[in-house]
Amino acid sequence: MNNPATITSVNQGLLEKLDPEGKLNLASCLQCARCSAGCTMRLETDILPHQMNRMVLMGMEDELLKSKAIWTCVSCHTCVSRCPMKVDTPALVDKLREMTQTAPSQDLEKINIFNNEMLKSMKQFGRVYELGMMGFYKMRARDLFSDLAKFPTMLLKGKMKIFPPRTRAAKSVSAIFDKVRARRAKR
Amino acid sequence: MKYAFFPGCSMESTAGDFRMSTLAVAEALGVELEEIPDWSCCGSTPAHATDSLLAASLPARNLAIAQDMGKDVVVCCASCYSRLASANVALAENADLRAQVAEITGREYAGGLKIRHFLQVLNEDIGLSEIKDSVVKSLSGLKVACYYGCLLTRPKELSILNDPEDPQLMDNIMAAAGAEPVEWPYKTECCGASFSITRTETVERLSGDILRMAKQSGADCIVAACPLCQSNLDLRQADVEKATGEKIGLPVFYFTQLLGHALGIPDAALGINKLMVDPSAILAR
After folding, report:
1. What are phi and psi of B32, to 5 degrees?
2. Which residue of A has its CA nearest to B7?
3. For residue range B247-271, what is the model confidence (pLDDT) as tens digits?
4. Separation between Cα atoms, residue B76 and residue B114, nearest integer Å
5. Domains along chain A with CATH numbers
6. What is the tens place of the pLDDT at every residue in B73-102?
7. Which of A78, A134, B55, B67 is close enough to B47 for a disulfide, judged by CB 3.0 to 4.6 Å?
8. CATH number of B2-118
């Protein structure tokens, strides 16, 4: 996106699609930018929260889905808690992330890989197996060597468990994932 | 006082010391924390960032089990608190979601449980005067920066705090234990959370700002109430120092560790030896 102010495609239904019941108050945005002034990730994002809200009203679906912003959002909720109109930008970001399969760069794709590995760990064990999840993440993200020096100390201090959690919950949690996925496929 | 306790995955490994110190403090103050049987992961950020139905269903399973215990649910991890509290509200408000989640989890839960953070139990149920009376080793002279981070603070509807810009729950407890909470402006800034793994430089910048501000404000140490905040400020502190060449050297405790120390609980039972930045000098004073 060279110039975020240039509208290349207009999808009037985007607001309706993202917030059919008007719960996110996106149309109430005053463009005061209080959200953006406090945004934790303001230095690293490409679209600031108030810009994102306006882009939804303008129907800029492609630009939003390809943005860095939906990945760099750290879900700190500073924007919505300071918003005079209670525009729920973090919920908007979650909805946009739900519509997106891959991140726009290799660097940001690491966030996607991390999320997926953590979900896999939950599904398999019912609880997150931190050491195993980190191993898979590091392989998939091709990030084998960072923080390696920390692992021996963490293991020595008992800050990382070597073996995965064993719970009776695993089976029912796995069933929850399967049922959610089946519903998602139908949607 | 009895509660249904949800420890969460971090407390089982990286935040084992948060768990140890929470249970030790609870016991010392006559609080019974009964673990929710067969609890499972709350879903954390990966669930809410990928599927809203999954984000409601994973906490709902735990809430449905806790419902049979007939007690308030107590959580220590800020992220688990946020996910459980958020699902609790969504399920109570939205009948359609409730029906879908019941079908997915195979358990009925209609909302109605109270989800509370351990800080609330200490402030509201135990009370500050009781805590004060139980202190055997006052923290007097210790300047503490209380760090609340995001998920106990925001969004307002789920916040455990009266003032999301200048919270006091931890400050009150530290003061009751004899310490001197410092005034500082970064109490509710974000540490960078799980970007610790995926965008390490981001976390070094954000957590570095928090650490330096705490130091500039005259703190001897930081207390935190979230496994990820604690880990980013403690485990990443050496990386922050390396990146800037500036020594920080601030121990980062869980509030339960420092309170437990004041209550006379041995440091080993509080997992204080698990901290990365060595706190022995400030505890020996």
Report:
1. -100, 120
2. A127
3. 999 999 999 999 999 999 999 999 9
4. 14
5. 14-98 (1.10.1060.10), 106-186 (no CATH)
6. 999 999 999 999 999 999 999 999 999 999
7. B55
8. 1.20.1050.140
